[in-house]
Specification:
The chain is mainly α and 146 residues long. It has one domain. Helix content is 73%, strand content 8%. Helix 1 packs antiparallel against helix 2. It is elongated, with a radius of gyration of 18 Å. It starts with a helix and ends with a helix.
Length: 146
């Protein structure tokens, strides 16, 4: 039951991450700022089209990898419910990390005067949550073997 619930949440998080990407992409300028140096000056840009293709490819490849990992777990008879649910949770946190990263790039490229240091923690927190979900999935896979 938990696997189906987290599977539905994984699909929902993928859709939400893609929608956040599309909304953010619509407001990107032609040259998207992707890196600011220590002094707060713009340091690196990508074109809007390149940014689109890179982000879509990244989202598709990683979500396909999660689907492939789930099928490997089922195929190799590793049907521990906690392991498969952990893969779904990792997918959810990955999509949260992706959406918050794209939103941060959107804020960085907005013409408003923001203090970007107030938003930087958002990337680190979602990254740490993603790593914790992956580590707990691996631990549950090894510890809870039959």
């Amino acid at each position: 039951m938990a696997v189906r619930f987290f599977s539905a949440l994984g699909l929902f998080s993928t859709i939400v991450a893609f929608l956040i990407f599309l909304i953010s992409y619509a407001s990107f300028p032609e040259d998207v700022l992707v890196y600011v140096n220590n002094l707060g000056e713009p340091a690196s840009y990508l074109s809007k089209d390149t940014m689109f293709y890179l982000l879509v490819a990244f989202l598709i490849i990683t979500n396909a990898a999660f689907i492939g990992l789930k099928s490997i777990i089922r195929k190799n008879d590793l049907t521990l419910e906690n392991t498969e649910a952990g893969v779904h949770v990792s997918q959810i946190f990955f999509n949260l990390f992706f959406a918050s990263s794209v939103y941060f790039i959107n804020i960085l490229n907005s013409r408003e005067n923001f203090d970007y240091s107030n938003f930087g923690y958002m990337i680190y927190v979602t990254g740490i949550l993603l790593l914790l979900a992956i580590v707990f999935t691996l631990i549950s896979g090894f510890v809870l073997k039959k």
